[in-house]
């Protein structure tokens, strides 16, 4: 018995995407396994190949697979009782793979990250304790997508998908031994009270320093515009906010992230720079930058808001863009929930640069306190240790 108690516990982590992609959910999962590898034996299965090259040599086994994504169009499953995203992968092939792993080694815990792998909690046939890493209130996020469509049929289908997602996610939460979210707001919107079964671990981000000096005021938007909501958000911002502002005074806009150059065909203006790739966020920021976060979709945590705040950059955002970040309107950021408010808030910061600096400093201090790497690593170890 003594040997069993003293042995290093083993964890199998399932991630839909490569933990080396370093964006969104992939970054969150990477930080989790990096923290856990200090105290546990961690094996990671990524159901897709990495999009980026990496020289990382982690203290863990990381296996990438290909050929697991379903080729059947999602609309084929519209009449299913399950949400269409649960058919993103070839279910039986993935399930067989995971059961083989669990049978081949004495694992103490199975961790399923992201909604795309959450269904495994209900389907693995090996007796093992399970944790669901809930990176979003998925039903709320899906439901908020309807605002981007005018077609009533599409709106109705989105509602049905959100309802099915809510049912599936609640059954997964009920079956899991523990659920960890990236923001307590997601638990609140689902009507879940805090308890031992539920934990919150945010994204880790150490404070950074701005490298570039001076220049003219530059608005910065960072996001993956290959995803329709983010593409529409920045297009509407350019049309209804940036163009009216540029007529008032000299101003620049940087649109950075995958899919950004596709927007150039619609708004090919000399004072807008489109960057598909960039070395780091520090290459985007100057002392006169203002980050804009015109997100409208609910749920989760906008990681780029955390990133921008870590540099001490003043932020103008919708209320959805700061959810779960700890930033507060008028204290560490400015909230704008329509185009007129965005114009007014940005205009105010341009005319009062000392206030912009103060907002950035306060935001940076919040990130320093709540999101530094040591705090987040301890949180991961503490939450997981409650189950293993």
Low-confidence stretches: none
Name of the CATH first level of the largest domain: Alpha Beta
CATH T-level topology of the largest domain: Rossmann fold
How is the biggest beta sheet arranged? 7 strands, parallel
Helix content: 25-40%
In short:
With 388 residues, this protein is α/β, with parallel strands linked by helices.
Relevant terms:
39% helix, 14 helices, Rossmann fold, 7-stranded parallel beta sheet, 388 residues, alpha/beta, globular
Give an overview of the whole structure:
The protein is built from 14 helices and 13 strands. The protein is globular and about 65 Å long. The two termini are 16 Å apart. It has two domains: 2-204 and 372-385, Glycogen Phosphorylase B (Rossmann fold, 3-Layer(aba) Sandwich), CATH 3.40.50; 218-370, Rossmann fold (3-Layer(aba) Sandwich), CATH 3.40.50. The longest helix has 24 residues, at 152-175. It has 388 residues and is of the alpha/beta class. The chain has helices at 2-6, 24-36, 91-104, 115-118, 120-123, 138-143, 152-175, 184-189, 228-246, 261-264, 303-310, 339-351, 353-370, 373-385, and strands spanning 10-15, 41-46, 61-64, 109-113, 129-134, 178-181, 198-200, 218-222, 252-256, 272-275, 289-293, 315-317, 334-335. The strands form two sheets. It has a seven-stranded parallel beta sheet, sandwiched between helices. Strands 10-9-8-11-12-13 form a six-stranded parallel beta sheet, sandwiched between helices. β1 (10-15), α2 and β2 form a beta-alpha-beta unit. α9 (228-246) packs across α12 (339-351) and α12 packs across α13.
């Amino acid at each position: 018995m003594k040997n069993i108690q003293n042995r290093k516990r083993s964890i199998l982590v399932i991630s839909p995407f490569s933990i080396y992609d370093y964006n969104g959910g992939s970054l969150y999962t990477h930080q989790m396994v990096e923290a856990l590898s200090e105290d546990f034996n961690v094996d990671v299965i990524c159901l897709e190949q990495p999009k980026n090259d990496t020289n990382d040599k982690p203290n863990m086994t990381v296996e990438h697979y290909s050929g697991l994504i379903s080729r059947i169009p999602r609309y084929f499953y519209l009449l299913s009782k399950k949400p269409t995203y649960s058919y993103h992968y070839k279910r039986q092939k993935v399930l067989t793979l995971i059961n083989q792993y669990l049978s081949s080694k004495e694992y103490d815990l199975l961790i399923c990250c992201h909604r795309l792998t959450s269904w495994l909690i209900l389907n693995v046939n090996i007796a093992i304790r399970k944790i669901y890493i809930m990176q979003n209130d998925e039903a709320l996020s899906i439901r908020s997508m309807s605002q981007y469509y005018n077609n009533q049929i599409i709106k109705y289908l989105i509602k049905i998908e959100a309802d099915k997602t809510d049912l599936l996610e609640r059954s997964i939460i009920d079956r899991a031994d523990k659920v960890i979210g990236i923001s307590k707001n997601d638990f609140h919107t689902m009507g879940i009270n805090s308890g031992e079964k539920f934990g919150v671990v945010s994204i880790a981000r150490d404070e950074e320093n701005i490298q570039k000096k001076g220049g003219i005021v530059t608005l910065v938007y960072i996001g993956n515009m290959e995803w329709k909501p983010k593409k529409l958000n920045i297009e509407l911002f350019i049309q209804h906010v940036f163009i009216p502002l540029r007529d008032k005074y000299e101003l620049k806009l940087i649109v950075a992230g995958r899919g950004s150059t596709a927007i150039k065909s619609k708004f090919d203006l000399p004072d807008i720079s489109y960057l598909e790739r960039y070395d780091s966020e520090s290459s985007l920021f100057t002392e006169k930058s203002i980050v804009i976060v015109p997100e409208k979709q609910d749920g989760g945590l906008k990681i780029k808001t955390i990133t921008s705040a870590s540099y001490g950059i003043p932020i103008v955002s919708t209320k959805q863009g700061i959810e779960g970040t700890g930033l507060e309107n008028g204290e560490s950021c400015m909230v704008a929930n329509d185009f007129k408010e965005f114009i007014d808030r940005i205009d105010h910061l341009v005319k009062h640069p000392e206030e912009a600096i103060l907002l950035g400093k306060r935001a940076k201090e919040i990130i320093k306190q709540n999101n530094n790497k040591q705090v987040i690593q301890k949180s991961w170890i503490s939450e997981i240790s409650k189950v293993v």
